[in-house]
Amino acid sequence: MYIQNYAELTSHGQVTDRKTLIDIIEYSLRAADPYVATQNLVRLKGNILNVGDLHFDLSKRGKIYLLGAGKATFPVAKALEEILGEKLTDGIVIVKEGQQGTLQRVNLIQASHPLPDKRGYLAAQKMKAMAEQAKEGDIVFCAITGGSSALAPLPINGVNIEEKRKIHEVLLNSGATIREINTVRKHLSQIKGGRLALSVFPAELINLTVSDVIGDPLDYITDPTVPDTSTFADAISVLQHYGLFNKIPESAQEYLLTATQEKENPKDFAGKPLHTFIIVKSEIPCEAAIRRAKELGFNSILLTTTLSGESKEMAHIFASIASEVKTYERPFKSPCLIVAGGETTVSLQGRHGLGGPNQEMALSAALQLERMDGVVFAAIDTDGTDGLTSFAGGIVDSSTAMRANQKGLDLMQSIFFHDTAIVLNELGDAIKTGHTGTNVNDLYLILID
User: CB 331: neighbour CB atoms within 10 A?
Assistant: First the structure.
């Protein structure tokens, strides 16, 4: 099982419904397994390598490399090692600290996420150097997945790794969307925004990626190896919109303000040997949840795969729909499961504690469900780590607020100060998975019986 504390989560509250919801979550995470997706896409028979509809005669090719960074990169690398065997010349992948497993032919390096550190910085330098070794006739697989910005930080000259870390921190605390955040980060990097691909060419570049961004935009999910659609002006606009420009280091400010067109990221790779496969799309867990719910006899509705906004406010939407179903049997009849995917945000200002968007949404939902029996809500980060915590999210029902009162825990205060992790854990409602091996959009489910 992905969920490690199943017994704890099903020891209280609406036990039967909690077990059902966890079953659906497990099914959804299995459907988003990058290892299986890679095995299905890449095949080797003798010297003939097939990648989707691409065919390569390796007897007429040079070396094969693997470059990767991200929270869903390890299973891709593991699958490629097994498929290619000794035909894989060399590789380097950078994963989040705590990743379990080993690789035989690929250098596996652990680094910090969501804030970058020196380990990732040094690993990113090695990755760029390996990319530059590739020659015409070689094949370079690139497995860039969510989290690569922090795990492979290679800032532009003049910005050091400590300053890069500060930039990440300022952006992540702002409430900006992941697209907006990456618009800035892409213009302060030596490898993002398509620049790693420039180091790979003229070798053949094959992207195998997993999408954790709404709408699956390539230059926001595997941006080091595809053309960039954003500009320096866009990056400055994001910083100004959120009042962040003067909060980032002066070295970064100066670079953005003085950058010329010649420093702009590449906008077109027409004619270049580049192929991109999204092996797991962002909506996959949502679609899987719907299938499993129908198998279990529930009316199932996929509300949206593009949910965004403040986490605590989104919780009110789910609770309102549940109330309408329970009271008027509209817009859906119970028993039903309502599913959504996306990525919500938490705007941090002033004092704040430890938590994450999914935990904040779960705890906010708990307040709304206090007098609503027969409803269970879960919010989970599919990579297994929500915010800066070791928890994936939370699962709550009408018992959550009651048990909090009995323990003297103030849910409203916890939400106000964005200090949700300790409370959810104390209540036995924090979901613990460890690294799941995948990283797609967050998953939100509300079960109404």
Answer: 11
Sequence letter at residue 257: L
Order the strands of the 274-280 sheet from edge to edge: 107-111, 90-96, 64-69, 139-144, 204-210, 274-280
The whole-angstrom separation of Cα 264 and Cα 220 is 16
Residues 82, 392, 411: CA angle, nearest 5 degrees: 180
- 259 within a domain of the structure (yes/no): no
Q: What are the pLDDT digits (tens) for 113-166?
A: 999 999 999 999 999 999 999 999 999 999 999 999 999 999 999 999 999 999
Structural domains of the chain, count: 2
- Crossing angle of the two packed helices 357-368 and 398-406, in degrees rounded to 10: 90
Please tell me the distance from the alpha carbon of residue 449 to that of residue 337, in angstroms, as a whole number.
9
Q: Are residues 106 and 123 in the same domain?
A: yes
Same domain, 319 and 272: no
Residues in contact with 277: Cβ distance below 8 Å, sequence separation at least 6, in sequence order: 41, 51, 52, 206, 207, 208, 209
Q: Judge whether 138 lies within some domain.
A: yes
CA separation for the pair 412, 289 (Å, rounded) = 30
Q: What's the confidence (pLDDT) of residue 238?
A: 98
Is-contact 321 304, C-beta < 8 A? no
Rounded distance between C-alpha atoms, residue 108 and residue 10, angstroms = 36
**CA–CA distance, 143 with 185 (Å, rounded to integer):** 19
- Judge whether 338 and 318 are in contact, CB under 8 Å: yes
- The CATH number assigned to the domain holding 349 equals 3.40.1480.10
Residue 172 lies in a domain: no
Q: What is the H or E stretch that residue 209 is in? A: strand 204-210
Determine the Cα–Cα distance for residues 142 and 330; give it in Å rounded to an integer.
47
Region 42-66: what's the mean pLDDT?
98
Residues 397 and 425 reside in one and the same domain:
yes
Bin 312: left if φ > 0, else alpha if -120 < ψ < 50, else beta.
alpha
Does 335 sit behind a cis peptide bond, omega within 30 degrees of 0 on the bond before it?
yes
- Model pLDDT for residues 368-404, shown as the tens digit of each residue: 999 899 999 999 999 999 988 999 999 999 999 999 9
